[in-house]
Amino acid sequence: MPSLYVVATPIGNLEDITLRALRVLREVTLIAAEDTRKTSRLLARYEIKTPMTSYYEHNKLAKLDYIISCLDKVDIALVSEAGTPGINDPGYELIGAAIARKIPVITIPGPSTVTASLPVSGLPTDRFLYLGFLPNRSGARINFLKTLTDEKSTMIILEAPHRIPASLKDILSVLGDRHIAVCREITKLHEEIFRGTVSEAISHFQSPRGEFTLVIEGSNENQKPEMTEDIGQRLKKLREAGVPAKEAIAGLVKETGLSRKELYRKWLDSKNSENGIKNEELRIAAIKD
Questions:
Q1: Number of folded domains in the chain?
Q2: Of 74, 92, 101, 187, whose CB count within 10 A is highest?
Q3: What are the φ/ψ torsions at residue 185 (nearest 5 degrees)?
Q4: Where residue 273 falls among pLDDT bands split at 50, 70, 90?
Q5: CA distance 260 to 21
Q6: What share of the chain is helix, strand, coil (3-state, %, to 5)?
C-alpha cells in the first residue's frame, strides 16, 4: 500500500540530511513541498529528479484532496521549508488526513530547530516546552507570557527578526531577567548563539537579522524577584515626585521583573500608610488646639 513519508530536511546546512532521507526522496513518485524553490536547491545538490508539487499554507486546503488521491496509487514524501514537517507548517493537516484514511505515515527523522537549539543553549534539557511563535501584538504576547510565569520546563520559542526587540522586552517584563539562549541562523554560515540574561540579550540584539530561536529558562522559585525595601522606597520617591502610578510601575516592571499587580499593591499600601500618618497627625493637632 502506498505511504506518506514525513521527511526532515536541513534547516540551513545542506549537509545535514540523512542517507535514508536521500533514498526516500529518490524513490517516491512525488514530493509535496512547502517551498518548492528551497527544496529544488536541495534536490539539485544531490541530483534527485523526483517531481514536486507545492503544498503550503495558502493552498493546503485546495491541494489536500489532490495529494490524498495520489496516495491511493503512489508513495509521496512530505517536506517542509526546513526541518521536520508538521511542526509550525501545513503538514499537520495532510498527516492527519492520511491517518484518518488509514494510509501509512512513516517518519524519516532528521534536522529540527527545536532539537538543534536546546542542547547548545546550556539550559536544562530534561524537560522542555515548545511554544512555536509568540503572538504578533504586544498585548496578546504579554497575556500569553503570563500563562508561563510558573512553567518550570525550559521553553523554546521561534521569533521573526523584526519582533525580537519587542518580544525580549515583553519577556523581561512578564517573566523577569531569566537566563536565555538566543540562537540566530543556527547551522548556517553566520550562526550565532548568545547566552546570557534577557536584559543582556536586549542590549546585544539592537538590529537583529536572520532566523531566531529563543530558549528560555523555566521558573525557579529561588530566582523569583522579591519586593525589597529599596524598591518600596523608590516607589515612594516616584509618587512624591508626582510621577503617575502607571508610568512609575511600568518602569519598575521592566527593571525588577516584579509583576504590575505586586508593584501596584505596594504603591497603594505605601500611599494608604502615608495618608494614615497624615490623618493621625491632623487628629493630634486638632486635639492640641
A1: 3
A2: 187
A3: 55, 45
A4: low
A5: 50
A6: 45, 15, 35
48 near 26, Cβ under 8 Å? yes
Question: Greatest CA span in the chain, whole angstroms?
Answer: 102
At 106-138, the pLDDT tens digits run 999 999 999 999 999 999 999 999 999 999 999
Q: CA 11, CA 65: separation in Å to the nearest integer?
A: 28
- Mean pLDDT to the nearest integer, 82-100: 91
State the cell numbers at 115: 532539537
Q: What are the tens digits of pLDDT across the range 231-249?
A: 778 878 887 888 888 887 8
Provide φ and ψ at 184, rounded to 5°.
-115, 130
Last residue of a domain, one of 222, 243, 263: 222
**Boundary-marking domain end, from 78, 111, 144:** 111
Q: Which of 236, 67, 233, 253 is nearest to 145 (CA)?
A: 253
